[in-house]
Amino acid sequence: MTNKDRVLSGIQPTHESFHLGNYLGAVKQWVELQDSHDAFYCVVDLHALTTSPDPAKLRKQTLSSVAQLIALGLDPERCTLFIQSHVPAHNQLAWVMECLTGFGEASRMTQFKDKSAKSGTDRTVVGLFTYPMLMAADILLYQASQVPVGEDQRQHIELTRDLAQRFNATYKETFTIPSGYILKAGAKIYDLQDPTAKMSKSAESPSGIIDLMDAPEVNIKKIKSAVTDTERDVSFDEKKKPGISNLLTIYSALTNKSIKESEADFSGKGYGDFKGAVAEVVVEFFRPIRAKALELLDDPTHLNKILTLGAEKAEEVANKTLKDTYDAMGIIPRA
Ligand code: TYM
Known about the structure:
Helices cover 54% and strands 7% of the residues. The protein contains 13 helices and 5 strands. The protein has helices at residues 20-36, 45-48, 55-71, 89-98, 103-107, 110-119, 126-140, 154-170, 216-224, 242-255, 259-265, 271-297, 300-329; strands at residues 6-11, 38-43, 80-83, 146-148, 179-181. The strands form 2 sheets. It has a 3-stranded parallel beta sheet. A two-stranded parallel ribbon has the order 4-5. It is globular and about 75 Å long. The site of ligand 1 has 26 residues, from strand 1, helix 1 and helix 7.
């Protein structure tokens, strides 16, 4: 146990590869926070069930997610890396959260509204409705003070804060009130073909998404075909030049240069040169990561060992919080 502040975050194993938005919006910060914080990171396989994945694919994607996280820089010696379903307290606390959440409050979650509007209420599963309460449980079980995520998760974190405050006020001080750790740069990476929509695993077409496990040629082609505008100068203006601004954000985040420095790198150069340079930075950044992830996937026994240790460490913290929660509510333990 350490005295460091806790962070917790999660990522869904809904695809075989994470995309650039997942990395820049979230995982890059996860890696950075490993040393300054007592960090817990989970692959949220239970959340992924809301998308009814094929069982064989879910198995493969879950392990692939773990391999990618390690390849991206998570070090199981310096953080606790685990799979959500391995710690049953997540479901148990989720029920408590459901009993604290108003129906109207849950109905106002924009991700639920958007997804259910797309597929219609009959085809929308109840799990999608209660999704934010399971996420609140993920966070509160670990007494996390910071939650590193992209902009699209802000509302879920607000709900988590409300639920924690409500519980503490109604029963007993039990939960740390978490804050979102949402950096300005990279918190929202946009689709390369529609730079007004976020880069998303559920986009209709893959052509605007940079997957880290894709072959370099595929990603080079996608970046070179990114939608831009009819002007000529490589400058940052999200309203007028969303495509160029998105590429500048990507370039600056991966090179650790400011937007101003990145603009200066391309002064007097055309969009063709600029896209070529962004493609090179992206592909060279992901090349060793992809190779490392594939190497890790060749040794599932090793990955499973890491996950067993992670689940044990996570469970210790989670079970304590669950016990305190039940005690505060008057649920008696088995004698
Ligand atoms: P998920 O799996 O959709 O995405 C994982 C992380 O990637 C971020 N992200 C982006 N950031 C910037 N630009 C983008 N285009 C972009 N797309 C995705 C997300 O904000 C997220 O941080 N509900 C969560 C998973 C979750 C969770 C949690 C997160 C479950 N329990 C507890 C934090 C704490 C989700 O669906 O993320």
